[in-house]
Every structure is written in C-alpha cells, then in structure tokens.
Amino acid sequence: MLKPGHLRAQIWICIAAFLGGFAWLIYSKVSGFGMLHGDDFLHVGNNAYLRDFSADNVLWMLSNADIDYWRPLSFISHALDYKLWGEDIGGHHITSVFLHWCNAVLVAIVGVTTYQLARNEPPTLLRASFAAIACGVIAATIFVVHPQHVQTTAWIAERKGVLSALFSLLSVWAYLRSQALPHRAPYWSGLALMAFVFALLSKPMAITVPFVLLALDVFPLRRLTWSAGWRVLLSAIWDKLPYFVLTGAVTLYTYAAVRAGGFLNDADMFPLAERIINAARSVWLYPLRWLAPIGLSPIYPVAVLDNSVSFTNLLPLFGLLVVGCAGITLFVRGSGALLAALAIHLVIIAPVLGLISSGPQSSADRYAYLPDVVLCVALAIGLVRLWAQRAALKLVPACAAIAVVIWTFGLIALAQTQVLVFASDKSTHELVKRYYPQWQPYTSYLDGVAAFERGDIERAHTLLLAAVQYNEARHRAHIYLAFVFQRLGDNGLAYEHIKAALALTPNDPFVMQMAAQALVQGGRPQAARVLVESLLQGAPQDQPLQQQLAMISIEQGRLVEAASILESILAQAPEQINALNLRAVAAQLSGDAQMARTLYQRVLKLDPDNADANNNLKNMR
Fold it and tell me: Are 466 and 444 in contact (CB under 8 A)?
C-alpha cells in the first residue's frame, strides 16, 4: 500500500501532465509560427549578439539597456534558444510554451499553499488535502488555458514576461514556505531572494515582488493585522530590506534607460489627468477581460480612447476608492483577504498603468499575466469552500461547478482562436484594424517622412519626435531626425540621432545604409565607410552599396579607389546613371576635365533633365 506522501507525489506528476496537455492543446500550432515585425526582429531576430556566447556577446547581454531596458536573463534565454534550435523559430516558440507550462505548475503549487495557510494547515505539498489540491488544479487550469495569456506565451518578444513570471512565482512560493515553517526556514528565505533576483534579471517589472510579499503578510500569512501595531509592520519591512534595495536600484536604472532611449511619452502627448483616467480604467479592465475575454487585441491604442475628464470616465476611479475602503474596513474587522488581493493586483500592474507612459498602448494583455494569478487562486479557493458547504447550500455548489466548467471550455476555445492571431503580421494587423479601424499604426512616422520629403522641415521635426516617443519605427525615425537636424544646421544633434538608431538596430541594413548617408552629409565619412564596408561583407555585389562606398571615397579624396569601384560597376551596367555621374565627379576632381565632360554628356544623353550632370557640366565651362 502506498504511503500518503507517495500518493501525493504521483498526484503531482499527474497534475503536471494534465496541465501540459492543456498547454499543448492550445499552443501546439505555434511550432509553425515565425517572428512578427517590430519587437521580435528588433530585439531578437536582427540581434547578432544572441547568435553565440562569445565574450563580447555575453558582455552585451549582461550590460545592455539600449533596446528597451536592462534584462540580461531574457537575452540569455534567447541566445540559448539559438544554441538549441538555431534559426528554427518554431523551436523558440516551444520554449515559451514550456515556460508557460512551468508557470502553470507553479500556480498550482501557490494555490495549494495559499489554501493551506488560509485554513491554518501546514504548507506541505506531498501531504496536502484533496481540497487544497483541488484548489491548485482549478487555479492552474484556468491560468494555463486563459486567452489573456496568449500574448505573453505566443509572442517571442515577450519571453521576458513569461520568464520573469516563472521566478516571481517561485519567489512567492518560497516566501510563503519560509514564513509558515518554524524558525522562518533560512533555506526557503534564501531561495525566495535568489528567485527574486532572477526575476529582476528577466524583466524589471519584477520590482513589484517585495510589495506583493508585504500583501501576503496580510493574507494568507496573517502576520500583519490591524491590531499588530507598527513594530510588526516595521519588522516585516525590515525583513525585506534586500528586496527593497534591489527594487530601488533597478527602478532608477530602468527609468533612466527608458528616458534616455526616448521611450517615455511626454506630458503634451499624454497629459497627467488623462493618464490617471486611463490608469483607473485599466485597473478594472484587466479583471473584466479575465472574466469575459472577448475582443482581445494585440494592442489597445491610447490614441483612439476618450481619456477626457468627465463624470463617466471618473466612475472607475470612484469604484476603486469604494472597493479600497471595503477592503480596509474588512481588514480592521479581522479579515485581510480582500485588501491583500486588491493590493497584489494593484501593485503588480502599477508600473504599466500608464502613469509613467511609454508606447502607443493604453493597456496590454501581457500585463495581466501575473495579476491574473490572484484572480485564479481567489476563484479556486471560493469554489472549494463553497463545495465544502454543499450540504447546506444544496444545488448552489453543483451549479457553480458546472458554470466554471462551461466557462473554462469557453476559455479554451477562445484561446485557440487567439493563438492564431499571432501567426503572422497579417493576422495581427487585421485584428487590430477590425477593432480600431480609425487607428493607423506608424502614422506619426509615415507623416513625418512625407513632410521631410516635401521640404516641410518644421512639421517633419514635430512628427518624427512623436514617432520616437510612441515607438513608431523608432530606429528609422531617429535616422530621419538626423536628416532633419542636418537641414537645420545642427550636425551635433544629427549625430546623436544616428547613434541612437544604430544602438537600437546595430545590424539592420536599411538603418546602416541610411546612417552612412547621414554621416557623410554630417562630415563623418570615415564612420560612414565602416558601416558600408560591413554591409558589403555580406553583400559584396550590391551595386547601391558599391556606389555609396565610391561616394564616400570621393568625400575622403580617395579618387583612385572611387574610380576603380565605379569602373567595376559600369563594366556590368554601362548605362547606370548614378555610377556615371559619380565617375564623372571623380574624373573632374582628379583634373581629367575631358573625361568628366564626356561622362556628363553620356548621362545627359540617357537623362536630358539630370540636374547633377547639367549643373556640373555648366560649372566646367
């Protein structure tokens, strides 16, 4: 006969397999997905530093905060994917699904432990009651199948979120164990702190974990009560001093990096009053989308929402105050569950509510990944407790169970549909366009480029700055801003924008070529040469690049080298007008007026209205 502990171990293996089956049922198709344009390519696909673990690449992963913010462990996970899967992007997706499954198992463990502590039971997994196990399974099942978690799992760029959640959940569980066991169990305390460090290394949003641990002291640990006094509160805070020190350091560094990278929206684009309205609404939107995940979108653009100060828009703020007052009242009367749940929800989403705003989104499904754990566990505990009272309530527990089962199957169907949204750029854009037909992505960037090309430099300057703020093709917007500042005669600022563009996408051929052009115009031909020569290493026969190198050589006075490059191009394409023009310029500068005149005439024979040839030929007479 099996001992109880052994029986529970087998049950936990079955639970893990059960959750894995649901994860694969929903996410199996991601193995055929590629990368989405935007963050996938910007952060991973075009990031040469992730292709191997050379010393320079590892140093970049550990120190870089230019792409968005400092998150070395997420970069290392992508590099490990390239080591394991190579360029098979489907394998990278499978890694994210595996991490989501691990998170679901941790949600089950946290659910069991929370139920045990709420019932004053010892927090031991292998000897958990069937009621506690049922609580964990219900919470984890809802978590693993919920469509609101698809964005985090099926979008490669959000690996940081699923990885940070893994270590945050591990930290929470270890903390609960450390506080509930005799003598505070130093082993578990050390594990909680170490997991927190790994969560921070994955994504700075883990700065909320210390505040979550404080809320857990209210419930289910009941360490902090209304009658406990200030000393207990100060003791609880003091115990978490290492957490708060790390949180403060990472918060300051992340804010500085985000501001330096131009990610923050300024007050003119998103005034403070509107941010408060949007934040209060978002607090309610996440649990509402959890309850009824219909109309989920890859992005909820702030530009199309009404954030004006009105009575209707202030209702979410009033509602939040009412619920907060109710939680405090219950806490004073000895029940801290509502206050703890509300505090954890608010704390986790506080950094992404938009009070400090970046990007074009008002909210995002990926931000709900961790806060939803609170809702899943709360629902599970409520159902299990209700079922325990089935004799008194007769059919109510059975009806509630049936309703949750039907709801869960609905979640599965919605999640399977939502996964397909992230199959390609076309599917994501079509869904956003269906929900928000009035919103056009990259409007500021495209309008800024159009303004620059028609010569409206002031308008181009305003729009391209907005594009940088809203992260609309930010790397390319930086390049066009460099051209704008060159037109305005400020080569210093132009160079800063060139450096910003290259820092964001150091291996993007378009950005490198445009940057080289801007560098030449800004009087830095040698820096331009380095970029173009690196591009030619990968495409030695690319004629536009060869012409650009020839132009740079002319700027540097290396006329023989320029002539050789251009002769090679003209041998293959004798009527290449740009190459003919540049060859004529090289001949003119080297003192061969006859050859220059002949070449300009050849250009005009092919293109009688060519302004460069006409002007240069007139100047020679």
Answer: yes
User: How many whole angstroms separate alpha carbon 581 and alpha carbon 584?
Assistant: 5
Residues with Cβ within 8 Å of 293's Cβ and at least 6 positions away in sequence, in order, are 146, 147, 148, 411, 414, 418
Q: What is the pLDDT of residues 21-69, one digit of tens each?
A: 999 999 999 999 999 877 888 788 888 889 889 998 999 898 887 777 8
**Nearest to 328, CA basis, from 211, 226, 228:** 226
Structurally, the chain folds into a number of domains equal to: 2
Domain end: 359, 389, 423, which one?
423
Domain containing residue 574: CATH number: 1.25.40.10
Rounded Cα distance between 524 and 406, Å, is: 66
- Say if residues 432 and 364 touch (Cβ distance below 8 Å): no
Instruction: State how far the Cα of 356 lies from the Cα of 366, in Å rounded to an integer.
Output: 17
Instruction: Name the 3-class secondary structure at 363.
Output: strand
> Average pLDDT, stretch 11-18?
94
Q: Are 574 and 561 in contact (CB under 8 A)?
A: no
- The pLDDT assigned to 231 comes to 87
CA distance 446 to 451: 9
The mean pLDDT of 327-340, rounded to a whole number, is 92
Would you place residue 83 in the very low, low, confident or very high pLDDT band (cuts 50, 70, 90)?
Answer: very high
> What is the 3 state secondary structure string of 480-507?
HHHHHHHHCCCHHHHHHHHHHHHHHCCC
Q: If DSSP codes are grouped into helix, strand and coil, which group holds residue 301?
A: strand
Which residue carries 């009404």 as its tokens?
306
For residue 594, which amino acid is it? Q
Q: Write down the pTM of the prediction.
A: 0.75
**Beta-carbon count within 10 A of 261 CB:** 20
Owning domain of residue 547 = 541-621
Instruction: Give the confidence band of 549 by pLDDT, cuts at 50, 70, 90.
Output: confident
Residue at 472 is within a domain:
no
Cα four-point dihedral sign 352, 338, 296, 315: negative
Beta bridge partners of 363: 300
Rg (CA), the chain: 30
